[in-house]
Amino acid sequence: MSDFSIGILGTLSSSLFWAMAVILFRKSADHVTAFGVNVGKNAVGIAFFTLTLLILDIPFAPSMSTTDFWLLIVSGVIGIGVGDLLFMTSLKLLGAGLNAIVGCIYTPLMILAGVVIFSESVSAQLIFGAVCVVSAIVIASTGDSKERPRRLVLGITLATVSMLCTLVGAVLYKDLLARYDLFYITWFRLIAGCAFLVVYYAFHPLRRRLLDGLGDWRNWRSLTLSGFLGTYLAISAWAVGLRNLPASLIAVFSELTVIMIILMAYFFLREALTLRKIVATGLAVGGAFVSVM
Question: Can you give the residue range of the structural domain that contains 155?
Fold first, then answer.
């Protein structure tokens, strides 16, 4: 199988695993705080990656330059620590469906990063695609006031910033995947993300409430499954795609996650599947595809 085919398979698998995990994350958020969900799924992910390193006899401390070491730490703190915490908070505020639609802004942000960081030219497709995605967010969030989340603007803002953090984290560690083991890199980033959560917890004025729900073992059933699917399988598969495909192509295929989440949210979370949401989903996914044409 060619590297391209492996990359496509990894990206599509990641989309499926992540969509299932998001539904479980949302269900967990009814009983556990956004911070607690992050702690739970990261703990599960670290446990599975540690086991993987042991079974495959992968070194826990490979030879690494100081620059790569700090790039990996910063990538984990921004992409997993900050990004996932904002994502879980927005997921709780918006619901799985609307949060997924807002997440389509990742592709235009990724292309924009290429313009800003690598001085790539701004194409008409990028502008049109970005307009489509933003329009989709507006359409999806301006329906019946009874269906609108109470803290809509805050939720959309947090979801957008979380996508930006994910993008920055990916850009920082993409090149490292060619020099170090995939499982080790992901394991290290998770630990860096957890280190951020520890610092966040230590300085939070209401830290006693941050772990509400984690003491109930019943909540760990969904947290364990979601951590296995979302933190272990989805991130591993996504890293396989990131190592074998251009970032722009990964972003486009990842938008298929949106369709999966919308459908799963309807069947498993009983979120409304309105015409407005269907139109917004089509517009958002289409805009993401157009951005990289």
Answer: 3-291
Region of residue 202 (phi > 0: left; psi between -120 and 50: alpha; otherwise: beta): alpha
d(CA 283, CA 20): 23
Split at pLDDT 50, 70, 90, the class of 123 is: low
Q: What angle do CA 19, 81, 185 make, to 5 degrees?
A: 80
Question: Who wins on pLDDT, 217 or 245?
Answer: 217
DSSP secondary structure letters along 150-202: TTHHHHHHHHHHHHHHHHHHHHHHTGGGGTS-HHHHHHHHHHHHHHHHHHHHH
Q: Residue 184 corresponds to which tokens in the numbers above?
A: 């080790």
pLDDT confidence of residue 142:
66
Q: Report the residue count for the chain.
A: 293
Question: What total number of domains does the chain contain?
Answer: 1
The mean per-residue pLDDT over the stretch 87-104 comes to 86
Q: Is 291 within 8 Å of 151 (Cβ atoms)?
A: no
